[in-house]
Amino acid sequence: MTAQDEELIAVSGLSSGYGAVPVIHSVDFTVRTGEIFAVVGGNGAGKTTLLSTVSGLLRPTSGSVRLAGTDITGWSPERIVAHGLVHIPEGRRLFTGLTVAEHLRLGLWNAPNRRRVERERTERVVDLFPVLGERMDAYAEVLSGGEQQMLAIGQALMREPRVLLLDEPSIGLAPVVIQRVFAVVDRLRTHGLTVILVEQRVGQALALADRGLVLRHGRVEAAGSAAELAKDPALRVAYLGAAAAGDQRIKE
Ligand SMILES: Nc1ncnc2c1ncn2[C@@H]1O[C@H](COP(=O)(O)OP(=O)(O)OP(=O)(O)O)[C@@H](O)[C@H]1O
């Protein structure tokens, strides 16, 4: 394995925001091949903004993003997808009136080799998510929340990405379905995928992840192994605020 493989993603001094409003400030982190990397923090901490800046949806005001050794800073989202990084936004963004099969096909919409690879990739996605195979002709809107999340992930996998950015996959799902979606994310790792996971379900995200960071007011408050982060006081501060986290009366 080369040094570049080890650091599949390298984010350095990354800042961005909306118009003149800065949101994330000089964020640094690296993600190694095959890792699940959790980005956690309270509401409005800048997690989605960070993912959007890495995937090219937002232009950074400073800093850089490297993917497998290539500087992709300022590239268009389409070019970044073609280079192997796919972002699944919060809320799944599926289309009413399109079937499961059509969504999977859409995952390849501008891939140069789409006709040649469509059948084989669809088979691979169905192997991973048999429920999608059973519901190929169903419209996305009649799927359950968990099935919709699997379709969103399946659609992204049609590109055979190296890196998946996954924003709050558990949102709006029942606890038992969340377990299933987390199990799917865990399985992606065994398929060689690298995942950056944003989650409000902090305990479950850190139990799944290898490493991660805690974001607070757009800055990295703590970073390290997921097990260390789960015990880091910065985590409580990020969710409860400094005063509340110091209050012994707050129950674990
Ligand atoms: N399109 C936008 N235009 C202007 N400001 C925005 C926009 N999207 C987000 N923000 C602001 O940027 C800050 C960070 O938001 P972001 O969605 O990145 O946080 P988050 O950590 O993902 O939060 P949540 O967990 O609530 O989704 C917030 O103050 C938010 O109001």
Automatic annotation (TrEMBL):
Chain ranges of the ABC transporter domain: 3-242
InterPro entries for this protein: AAA+_ATPase (IPR003593), ABC_transporter-like_ATP-bd (IPR003439), ABC_transporter-like_CS (IPR017871), BCAA_Transport_ATP-bd_LivF (IPR052156), P-loop_NTPase (IPR027417)
Gene Ontology BP term (one): L-amino acid transport
PROSITE patterns: ABC_TRANSPORTER_1, ABC_TRANSPORTER_2
Keywords on record: Amino-acid transport, ATP-binding, Nucleotide-binding, Transport
Any GO MF annotation of the entry: ATP hydrolysis activity
Family membership noted in the UniProt record: Belongs to the ABC transporter superfamily.
Protein name: Amino acid/amide ABC transporter ATP-binding protein 2, HAAT family
